[in-house]
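2024-03-11 09:14:02 DEBUG pipeline.ingest accepted 1 chain
2024-03-11 09:14:02 DEBUG pipeline.ingest length=312
2024-03-11 09:14:03 DEBUG pipeline.predict start
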Amino acid sequence: MDDSPEPTAAPPAPSATAPATPGLATPGQGTIGQRLRAGRERAGLSVAAAAEKLHLDNKVIEALESDRFAELGASVYVRGHLRRYADFVGEPGVELVNTYTARSESRPPPPDLTQVPHPERRADPRRLVTPLVGLGCALVLAIAIWWVLAGSRSTNTLSAPAAANQPAPAVAAPVPAASQPIHVADAAPAATAAVGSPTQASTTPPAVEARRDAATDTSQAPTRVTRLTLELSGESWVEVYDSRGERLYYDVASAGSVQSIEGRPPLRVVLGNAAGVSVQVDGQSREIPSGAVNGEGARFVVNRSGSLSRAR
């Protein structure tokens, strides 16, 4: 009988694919920024060329490829830029967005600065000097005014008895008028002329009144609002600004959705996927001008009349 020990099984070899840390792809692929840079280099594009095709600033491309997502603002803007740029360079946009979301959720929340204890501030007695001086000056001024008014009132009281002791002036007797009859018919035209007709009382010319009414109507006219409706058959990045430059829409619109935006015309519109978007203005279908299309995207303006023109 063989007493030699039974051979033990070798421990399993470690898995070649370790779980990826939040915010990183698999070790063979690198970080989000490295994958984006590799995709751009495979396409043979420079940073400036990619930024020009996507109508973005060079700093946005550099921030994405360097994983400096905090420079792009809120999380919704980061996801929009990340997905759009990943699809452009041939990387899976949904996967990279999910990786970024998992990393941002795993970060600890920023400290609440409102809970930091602050030293107790002591009141500075020197700050009360200026209000007290101003109050004293106002009180002195009020006493001086009262003194002057009281002196003038006493002077008028002393002069009143002296005037009362003086004899009243003699009143001359009225001279009787000649006894002549007064004709009512002669007095009526004079009274009518003194009063005047209603048309003579108004001195404002009719032209001035018409211009004044026109100005009043113009000031009370309501502000025109244009309704822009975008029907998306494919996913597209959408930006819409009104006549004052206020941002009305700035996000990635999903396929099959309908986006309705209202604002003061003219409206400036930027589309990342012009072929997958149908445009309606105030319920009327509009064609995107051919001159406004640049590659896959488009930039155009919705005029006050409802027509579309290429953005300058």
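2024-03-11 09:14:41 DEBUG pipeline.report The CA atoms of residues 134 and 145 lie 17 Å apart.
2024-03-11 09:14:41 DEBUG pipeline.predict end
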